[in-house]
Amino acid sequence: xxxxxxxxxxxxxxxxxEDDSTARELSWLLDSVQETLASLKSGLxxxxxxxxxxxxxxxxxxxxxxxxxxxxxxxxxxTTIVKGSLHLRLRTYSPLQLSxxxxxxxxxxxxxxxxxxxxxxLDCVDITRWTGDRHSAPFITSQLHLLHSILIxxxxxxxxxxxxxxxxxxxxxxxxxxxxxxxxxxxxxxxNEISYDAQTFTPALPQNLSLHFLPTSSSLILxxxxxxxxxxxxxxxxxxxxxxxxQRRLEHDEIDxxxxxxxxxxxxxxxxxxxxSADPVLLVLGAKLGSLERCVEAGRMGxxxxxxxxxxx
Length: 313
Description:
Elements: H1 11-50, E1 58-61, E2 70-77, E3 80-88, E4 96-100, E5 106-107, H2 109-130, H3 137-159, H4 177-187, E6 201-202, E7 209-215, E8 220-229, H5 236-244, E9 258-261, E10 264-275, H6 280-307
Antiparallel strand pairs: 1-2, 2-3, 3-4, 3-5, 4-6, 7-8, 8-10, 9-10
Helix pairs in contact: 1-2, 1-6, 2-3, 3-4, 3-6
C-alpha cells in the first residue's frame, strides 16, 4: 500500500516544506533542552550535597557474615571515613584491634574524584545555559556530549572498576569504556599504591598488613590482606604441615601474584573481603546519577534524530 500527499506538491516545494518542518522541530527541541538543563542542575546540586562533609554521616557495620575474621563499624562523612573500630581475627595473624582517628580521617579518593566530577558537570550546565548560542545545534550537541561523558565517568567511579568491563551485547558508549576505565584507574589507585597516614590507625598499621576501602553504589568494600616478603622463604614447619595435610593453603585470587608494596616485593598470604551494610546516601546518589545520565542521553538521542545523525561521530 503506497501513500501520497494530496493535493500534489512539487518535489522542490516538498523539500522546502520538509526543511521548514525540521527547522521548527529543532527549534522546539533546543528550547526544551534549556528546561531540561535547569532540571539537571537541580538534580546535580542534590547529588553534590549528598557528598558534603555534614555530620552525622553514615555509620556502617563492617563484619564478615559467617566468621569472626572482621568485626566492627565505620562512619563515613562526605568523602572520608572519620571514625571506626575494627577487630581482626585472621588465620595467619595474631588478633588485632584497630581504631580510626577522628583527627586523621581516612580519605576515599574515589569519592573525592566523584565530587570533583559533579562540580565539573554543574559548570558544564551553566556554560550551556548562559554562554554560547543556545539556538546552535552543534554547540548544544557538543555540550551534552561533554556532560554525558562526565556523568558516565562519575557512575563508573561509583560502581567500581569490576563493573567497567564491556560485554559483547552492550553497545559502545561515549566516551569508550576503555577511556573511562583508564580515567577511573588514575583516580582509584590499586591497593598496593595506597599509603594511609601513619596516624590514621591506632595502633599504627603494621608493615605486613594492608587495609583497602573501596566505595560502591550501595556500600563500602573492605579488603584485608596479610602480606609476606618474597625474600622470606616458607618455614620448614609450614612446608611439612602443608605436605601432610595438617595445614591448608589459603586459596584466593591473588595467591600467585607478586606486588610492590612500600618499596618491597610481597605476596598476599591471606585475603579477607568484607562488604559493609548498605549506605543509604550512596544508594540515593547512585539512583540519582543514573537517572540524570539517562536524561542527558535521551536529549542527545533526540537531537541526533532531528539532525539525522545515526552514530556518535
